[in-house]
């Protein structure tokens, strides 16, 4: 066989397994359950164990296969999907660069567990409370920045200003609402119980949402890049930026709900059905509580992130007027829907 015929021969993989589309997630993003299955893989902490060489190898395999070039004959469909999972969990879709490991979504629960330990310190002083709230909001800033849409880059000055505003405002919100809880004894028992039940979640959720909006404020002002179905860029849209940031803020609020409501309930049940073990051995409360928070967080995180697709679409009519008469240069057809990366 000549060298030219070898160069144009099909991939060895094509002879053994069906062709798959690695440009899209493994599961349909048009359904909530499909997105949940996708984000279960994306938030799998086991992806954090991959070495730099393994990540580079996975990225190379995905790139090679998508370009239609030959890959090893021993490569299976499962190998391809595992490589795709590692790439999606570790590499930013806009920059194609690895996301800092502590701030990948697979690290969301483990990283936040450190802060949770500090926030659960009993009888914390004002200084300790401020420190751990600042640490918590700083980590939120890091997650929001590392997983944001990167089509509208921020300068160092903009990042510094956004960080200061996000941490200061979020801490103020969280500390103010915590003060309300501390003063709840002044109210009737019913009102006090309601405050103690709902204010902690409200504080975390509201502070988290404020953090997202401030840290990604440039996307609101300057917009984010939108694409047609063929992948052609059509400019930046502040309306799309607002949709992206709002969707992430909602998912952050949803992320906090089970982690703040289920562990206390489970803790009470454990104590009740263990003959008041936690009351008799109070030192067990913190480790048991952290274990419950970890389990709940790892289990429910994909369900919160999956409220919206990461690669979202929006009707042209919902964007600025200049996007309503765009033509797809690949197909020559009018663009009725645009696609954007909402970030995570």
From TrEMBL:
Pfam families linked: SFXNs
InterPro entries: Mtc
Residues in the signal sequence: none
Chain positions covered by the region annotation Disordered: 1-20
TM regions (residue ranges): 197-214, 284-308
An example Gene Ontology CC term for this record: mitochondrial inner membrane
GO terms, biological process: amino acid transport; mitochondrial transmembrane transport
Organism domain of life: Eukaryota
Main location: mitochondrion
Bilayer topology annotation: Multi-pass membrane protein
Keywords tagged on the record: Amino-acid transport, Membrane, Mitochondrion, Transmembrane, Transmembrane helix, Transport
Subcellular location: Mitochondrion membrane
A GO molecular function held by the record: monoatomic ion transmembrane transporter activity
Low complexity compositional bias, start-end: 1-11
Stored NCBIfam families: mtc (TIGR00798)
Family to which this protein belongs: Belongs to the sideroflexin family.
Full protein name: Sidoreflexin
Organism: Capsaspora owczarzaki (strain ATCC 30864)
């Amino acid at each position: 066989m000549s060298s030219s015929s070898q160069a144009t021969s099909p991939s060895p993989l094509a002879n053994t397994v069906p062709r798959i589309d690695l440009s899209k997630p493994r599961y349909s993003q048009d359904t909530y359950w499909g997105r949940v299955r996708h984000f279960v893989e994306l938030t799998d902490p086991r992806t954090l164990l991959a070495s730099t060489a393994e990540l580079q190898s996975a990225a190379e395999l995905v790139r090679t296969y998508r370009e239609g070039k030959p890959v090893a004959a021993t490569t299976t469909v499962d190998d391809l999907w595992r490589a795709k999972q590692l790439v999606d969990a570790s590499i930013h879709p806009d920059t194609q660069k690895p996301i800092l490991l502590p701030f990948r979504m697979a690290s969301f629960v483990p990283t936040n567990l450190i802060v949770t330990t500090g926030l659960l310190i009993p009888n914390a002083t004002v200084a300790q409370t401020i420190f751990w709230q600042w640490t918590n909001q700083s980590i939120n800033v890091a997650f929001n920045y590392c997983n944001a849409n990167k089509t509208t880059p921020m300068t160092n000055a903009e990042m510094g200003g956004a960080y200061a505003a996000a941490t200061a405002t979020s801490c103020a919100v969280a500390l103010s609402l915590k003060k309300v809880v501390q003063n709840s004894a002044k109210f009737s028992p019913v009102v006090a119980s309601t405050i103690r039940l709902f204010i902690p979640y409200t504080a975390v959720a509201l502070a988290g949402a404020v953090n997202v909006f401030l840290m990604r404020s440039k996307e609101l002002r300057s917009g984010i890049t939108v694409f047609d179905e063929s992948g052609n860029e059509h400019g930046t849209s502040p309306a799309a930026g607002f949709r992206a940031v709002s969707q992430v803020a909602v998912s952050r609020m949803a992320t906090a709900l089970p982690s703040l409501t289920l562990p206390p309930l489970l803790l009470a049940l454990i104590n009740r059905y263990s003959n008041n073990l936690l009351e008799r051995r109070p030192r067990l409360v913190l480790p048991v509580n952290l274990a419950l928070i970890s389990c709940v967080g790892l289990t429910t995180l994909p369900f919160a992130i999956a409220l919206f697709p990461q690669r979202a679409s929006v009707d042209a009519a919902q964007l600025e007027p200049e996007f309503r008469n765009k033509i797809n240069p690949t197909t020559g057809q009018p663009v009725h829907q645009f696609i954007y990366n909402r970030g995570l």
